[in-house]
Write a structure and sequence with these properties.
Elements (H helix, E strand, L loop, with lengths): L5 H10 L14 H8 L5 H22 L17 H13 L1
Helix pairs in contact: 1-2, 2-3
Length: 95
């Protein structure tokens, strides 16, 4: 995420006048990178907070969704290609 230009994206949004109090910029990752860009934290601490926040969010998803709910299609991203996922989503949207 960081090595793929995330900091540049967040910096560009701030330069365009978007403020950190917007709901979209309070999501996991944006909040921490904004703190880093504004000098409130180190990059290492921001990355750590992103990782722990993501982990916490994933744990909550397991509580929100039933793993055996047949309406939900789960993908193992280590075994399923992006193309396969895209095909399933495309079929879902068209049905």
């Amino acid at each position: 995420m960081i090595s793929h230009g995330f900091m540049e994206e967040v910096g560009a949004l701030l330069q365009l006048g978007f403020t950190p109090d917007l709901p979209a910029l309070s999501s996991i990752g944006y909040r921490e990178i904004i703190q880093y860009l504004q000098g409130g934290t180190t990059l290492e601490e921001a990355v750590y907070k992103i990782k722990t926040g993501t982990h916490r969010f994933i744990r909550h998803q397991y509580a929100w969704f039933r793993l055996k709910d047949e309406r939900i299609k789960w993908f193992d991203v280590e075994k399923t290609s992006g193309m396969e996922i895209e095909q399933v989503v495309d079929i879902f949207i068209k049905s």
